[in-house]
Design goal:
single chain, mainly alpha
Length: 307
């Protein structure tokens, strides 16, 4: 026992062992530096931040927690709570539909046999190669002309569903192509004998899908839910391009709103508040990734994809 402890003690003080830990510590510090900077910058007042030459680790002379209080309570800018609510509603809504459509579409391509199945699936995968920025203008025109060329202006077109909650309700849900691919890959590893046994026992299609196959795909569905939630929570393009009303904005859009204060002559942009709000957007995403990281690994492992 003593020899084992002595061996472990000597191992900890080997030069290569110490150098590797120092390198890992340095890399970890570099990765955490943006968060450290954001926390320190949030302790500044607007006036002191503007008048201070910031160093690598900015330390305020008169630290304040007002920015963090504003982030949580929203006493000065009540819109912060509204932005948070909008972001949360969008995230939950899109995540639910992404999980549902991914599983159903994956089941269709993995279990059902029909003419052109592989061709349709390859076309869906090919759409993933199209950059998302190329779809901004066509999507804008589609929203502006929906339905019937914009509703009240049939010939010239109106604003359609632009600047309304329909942008989020209709534009958000859709077939998650990557999620469909992962579910298809995972379901193909499940023996067909399970389906046949369920049918023999009297299980219908819905029971087979949701009570037998769906529980087997929980790691994959968790991966789809996590990645969709993170993407929706950090989404800036949708509220920025397709909405203008302040009541429809989300947390990422709040940064633009606070930055616009400096447009008027003599106004000072509240950078500490902007940085603190950015920290508030980042922390939930980090927590989701930290607590559910194992599901991401399990989800990819179940599909047979190796990183």
């Amino acid at each position: 026992m003593r020899e084992t402890q002595s061996g472990n003690f000597k191992k900890q003080f080997r030069p290569t062992y110490l150098i590797s830990h120092i390198l890992l510590l340095g890399i970890g510090l570099v990765l955490l530096y943006p968060l450290i900077f954001m926390v320190l910058a949030g302790l500044f007042t607007r006036t002191e931040f503007t008048a201070t030459v910031l160093g690598i680790f900015p330390i305020p002379k008169q630290p304040t927690l007002e920015n963090f209080k504003e982030l949580i309570v929203g006493t000065v800018d009540s819109s912060v709570a509204m932005y948070f609510r909008n972001s949360l509603i969008r995230t939950v809504y899109n995540t639910f539909w992404a999980v549902l459509t991914s599983f159903l579409a994956g089941y269709v391509f993995a279990r059902l046999k029909f003419k052109g199945r592989e061709t349709i699936f390859l076309i869906l995968l090919a759409t993933q190669m199209i950059p998302g920025t190329l779809a901004i203008i066509p999507t804008y025109l589609e929203f502006a002309r929906f339905p019937f060329a914009g509703g009240n202006h049939v010939f010239t077109g109106g604003k359609g569903i632009l600047d309304s909650w329909w942008v989020y309700l209709i534009g958000g849900p859709g077939i998650n192509i990557m999620g469909t691919f992962l579910v298809k890959q995972s379901l193909e590893k499940v023996p067909l004998e399970i389906d046949e046994a369920a049918v023999v026992d009297g299980a219908g299609t819905l029971r087979l899908i949701f009570q037998i196959l769906f529980p087997l795909q929980l790691p994959v569905m968790a991966f789809i839910a996590i990645t969709t939630a993170l993407g929706t929570w950090n989404d800036f393009i949708t509220p920025f391009f397709y909405t203008t009303s302040d009541s429809l904005q989300t947390l990422p859009a709040a940064i633009t709103r606070l930055s616009s204060v400096g447009a008027s002559p003599g106004a000072v942009i509240n950078y500490p508040m902007i940085i603190t709000l950015s920290l508030g957007i980042t922390i939930p995403a980090l927590l989701i990734f930290a607590f559910f990281q194992k599901y991401i690994v399990q989800g990819l492992a179940n599909t047979g994809i190796k990183g």
